Amino acid sequence: MLTPPRPASSPQVVFDHLWNDINNRYSFFEEKQVDWNAVREKYSPRLFATMTEHELFDVLGNMLGELEDGHVNLLSTFDRSRNWLWYENFPLFYNQQLIEQVYLRTNFWIIGPLQAQTLDDDVLYVNYRSFERALTEQHMDQIMFLMRTHKGLIIDVRSNGGGNLQNALNIMARFTDEEVIYGQQRFKSGPARNDFTPWAPLRITPSSGSTYLGNVAILTNRRSFSTTTFFAQMGRSLPQVRLFGDQTGGGGGIPVFAELPNGWTYRFSGSQAIDLEGNHLEFGVQVDEDLTSFLMVRAGRDHFIDTAVSWLKGQSE
Fold it and tell me: What region holds the Tail specific protease domain (predicted)?
């Protein structure tokens, strides 16, 4: 059986393929006020037949950068384009070494991907570095067991770049005894700008295991992205949960993956998600208590954690 030949992969062919696919399937042109036709006119003249693959990569990567979307990337064997404007111009308010030395110390619990420690006698502090790391029901059972002797819970997802949404749902399912709708989602379904599936609710379904309905503080910053943004929005939808810190970095579109004629791969946002007021999660979730302007930070302390502990202790008294 003969194998069909690979499509032509001249710079113009590769460029046209990428531009057309993004044009037909990207989900945030109107929300970000991006004129994709103007972007084509800007970058197409930079092509020439004898350009190197590195030169072509730079043109395509810079073109994709016009979308200012953390879920938009071009991947080759030698580089990966990216746009990190959602966090790189903002302070992170997060010091991993400080947290390890002052808060987690050496005797913390390691529960799968979670690190946990008791603070101020009866507050459980949980640090979760990436939703890419699988969180099982057994892991959450152990957190629920610890909550039997604690009066408040802090979940620190600062600088957590996201991962598997199911891991976020596994946590939030333990904080409610009834189904909760925390937003809506729709998917790009055709080439026209308004071609989307109908909006469908995003739900938290209660766990069949043990639950904790007491107060929960979630800590976020601008590098809390993608699934972490969804996690923050889930928290905002529960009455006993309060968000502290800085708003999340966004990332409300589910990534779509594809391949170019020359073998490079790329991804882009192919859906939209909104909160209960109609605000796009793509632009981040606001916190309940913005701590970014706090100037009186004591040396050797994490103000976000200390403020959350104070809130939880006040609520439990």
Answer: 122-288
Distance between CA 60 and CA 134 in Å, rounded? 34
Quick one: how far is CA 57 from the chain centroid? 26
Count of beta carbons in the 10 Å neighbourhood of residue 305: 24
| Amino acid 9: pLDDT | 84
Per-residue pLDDT tens for 231-253? Answer: 999 999 999 999 999 999 999 99
pTM for this structure?
0.95
Q: How far apart are CA 90 and CA 246, in angstroms?
A: 10
**Residues 106-117: pLDDT tens digits?**
999 999 999 999
249 contacts 223 by C-beta, under 8 angstroms: yes
Instruction: Please check whether residue 127 is in contact with residue 115, taking contact to mean a CB–CB distance below 8 angstroms.
Output: yes
Burial 231-245 (b: 16+ CB within 10 A, else e): bbbbbbbbeebbbbb
Rounded to whole angstroms, the Cα distance separating 97 from 104 reads: 10
Question: Which residue in 226, 216, 295 sits closest to 254, CA to CA?
Answer: 226
